[in-house]
Amino acid sequence: MKVLSHKDAAYARFVKKLNRRAVPGAAGSQVEEIVSSIVSDVQKRGNAAVFEYTEKFDGLRLSAKSLFVSQEEIDEAYAAVDADVKKAVAASRRNIHAFAKRSMRKDWKAKNREGVIVGERFTPYDRVGVYVPGGKAPLVSSALMTAAFGQATGVPEILAATPAGKDGKINPALLYALVESGATEIIKVGGAQAIAAMALGTKSVLPVEKIFGPGNSFVVEAKRQLVGAVSIDLLPGPSEVLIVADKTANAQFIAADMLAQAEHGGDSVIGFATNSKALLNKVEKELEKQAAELSREKYLREVLKNGTFCLLTKSIEEAVEICNAFAPEHLSLVVENEDCWLDQIRTAGAIYVGPLAAVAVGDFLAGPSHTLPTGGSGKSFSGLRADQFQRRASIVRMDQQALQKSLPAVETFSRVEGLDAHGRSVSIRVE
Q: Is 400 known as a binding-site position?
């Protein structure tokens, strides 16, 4: 764990590096080349390529028959999932739907100065894909935090992709959550090959119009490379949290939030910035104490060693500046006069305000999606939300009077741009 004070010689250089921006190739040339090869292969060979990569990377041999989750498997999952899980899934979905309904874009219309009726119309996509990572943990909540938003928006076809085990089985709770969140088809495929199959289609998989969901560096790179062939939500990579706190904060709570995000392992990034040396010391001790008590201690230790930083800043103002430069996926803001400081936060995927706002409640239950921008992409992207599942079309209507009032400006633009047919298409209607 890197611990630095504003008085240290290396502090300024380290803080400067925190001013991130997601750029092409950030995953590394090797990842970029591997993904490019996979995407090209899936485009050429379809099912065959998908099956080969699934066997190579996941140890699972698939066929056209076993590619999709069957109704029998769904029935088995529903029977295996206990009542507590079903209750938790229902609670999360209820909050997600309520949040989504409020953030969906609504149709509108108005008259402009010339009397032309203009407006916008929003309709759900016909078919979307959602990716749910497998690996170290069955991310049941990620099924809800992607598919359930499409369900709330009214998307009729939701294709889910998630890797299965070597036995061809998907975790029952994850499978249950996907179906409850509106997944109409589920394929047992992960990695870049899943993104390519959803974007480009194969003999068995119909292509989707937009892809949603988090993933590892290969999944994120596949989404980046396939922009244009398909629309994407954002580029959510490994988990991140930054906690900005002053002397009023509770060290136990801060350490617990840091460890909760470190629990994802891998390339997770965990940050803590405070102007209180006493608090920093307490948090260090709490991290050590709490990590030893948790079941995923091995992953936690790796992230604490390689992906965690703690900064003693000159002031909370400086900590907020670091936050805006870093653009964290999750920000926990635990300070006096919290609303004043909240107004100064410009770049964060999700903001948790106050000592009792546990990030895990947002991860699982609160309503906003936990699929959020990482790696500095929060400077350009927002987190997943309901309106991303909607298409937009502008609407224009006009009567004779509105057309006549519009003619002078149209003729001027036509003359300046040398496009006389444009002007004529209006004047002919007026005449």
A: no
